[in-house]
């Protein structure tokens, strides 16, 4: 083989590699910090500090949990009960001064979104609306959530997730430009596609029991998020199966494992 042919063959090989690299990079799951990056000094679940810490390590998104109080104020907290008080059955005035473990007061959604806007323009807001007592309340909470996201001009940084089908369908109706993922694990990718969901966001045990859903979701163009994975072996397993996102309580470790450290 002459020198020119060798050079040309080398150039072709480089082009093939160059085109292949982006597609390979897309196969690496993105990391979502579950309730923010809270397992670090000065942080707490669903706190503004946890969002700031998540943004600081370069994750794709930071997940947070939202309830609507009895007087229709949206607040961040995971459980429905805080210090013996039912969030959804109480007025905001009864809970607004309650403290998280890091000393922050329980954040109102408005306050949290304003802080998130200042902290980073890049990190996604993975907005979980918690289930409420009735279909009407679920739809109202979804409506108020969309209004707040629009008011704060955060539409293109937000992704909604929910266990509640009524809330999910209302999100899709009111904000078709915002991705909505379903959490409960009881519907196939095909059905979610018919309803207009952007993807499924299921526990890894659900995906283990339904491995065909990885391929089905991919075929339908749906995203696949898997929660909540802290074990490196399961992170690798779900990544190998084709998960697009990994939600985890150990985002810094997951980033290192998945080679996505900034």
Characterize this entry briefly:
The protein is of the alpha/beta class and 262 residues long. 42% of the residues lie in helices and 18% in strands. A hairpin with a 2-residue loop joins strand 4 and strand 5.
Model description:
By secondary structure, this protein is an alpha/beta fold. Helix content is 42%, strand content 18%. It has ten helices and eleven strands. The longest helix is centred in the N-terminal third of the chain and has 24 residues, at 3-26. Residues 5-25 have low confidence and may be disordered.
Record keyword descriptors for this entry.
262 residues, alpha/beta, eight-stranded parallel β-barrel, two-stranded antiparallel sheet, 18% strand, globular
Q: Numbering strands along the chain, what is their spatial order in the largest sheet?
A: 1-2-6-7-8-9-10-11
Helix content: 40-55%
Mean pLDDT: 91
State which percent range the strand residues make up: 15-25%
Could you tell me the radius of gyration in angstroms? Answer: 21 Å
Contiguous uncertain segments of 5+ residues: 5-25
Q: How does the helix and strand content classify structurally?
A: alpha/beta
Counted by DSSP, the helix tally is 10
Distance between the termini: 43 Å
Number of strands: 11
Give the overall form.
globular
Main sheet attributes: strand count, strand direction, barrel closure: 8 strands, parallel, barrel
SSE arrangement, N to C: HEHEEEEHEHEHEHEHHEHEH
């Amino acid at each position: 083989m002459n020198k020119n042919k060798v050079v040309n063959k080398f150039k072709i090989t480089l082009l093939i590699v160059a085109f292949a690299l982006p597609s390979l990079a897309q196969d690496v799951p993105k990391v979502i910090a579950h309730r923010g990056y809270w397992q670090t000094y000065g942080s707490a679940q669903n706190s503004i500090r946890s969002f700031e810490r998540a943004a600081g390590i370069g994750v794709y998104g930071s997940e947070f949990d939202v309830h609507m109080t009895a007087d229709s104020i949206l607040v961040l907290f995971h459980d429905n009960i805080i210090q013996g008080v039912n969030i959804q059955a109480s007025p905001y005035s009864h809970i607004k001064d309650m403290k998280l473990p890091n000393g922050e007061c329980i954040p109102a959604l408005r306050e949290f979104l304003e802080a998130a806007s200042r902290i980073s323009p890049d990190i996604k807001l993975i907005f979980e609306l918690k289930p409420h007592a009735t279909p009407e309340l679920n739809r109202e909470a979804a409506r108020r959530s969309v209004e707040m996201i629009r008011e704060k001009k955060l539409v293109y940084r937000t992704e909604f997730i929910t266990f509640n089908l009524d809330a999910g369908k209302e999100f899709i109706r009111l904000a078709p430009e915002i991705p909505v993922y379903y959490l409960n694990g009881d519907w196939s990718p095909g059905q979610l596609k018919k309803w207009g969901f952007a993807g499924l966001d299921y526990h890894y045990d659900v995906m283990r029991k339904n491995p065909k859903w990885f391929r089905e979701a991919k075929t339908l163009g749906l995203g696949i998020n898997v929660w909540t994975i802290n074990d490196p072996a399961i992170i690798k397993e779900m990544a190998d199966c084709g998960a697009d996102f990994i939600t985890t309580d150990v985002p810094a470790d997951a980033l290192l494992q998945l080679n996505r450290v900034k």
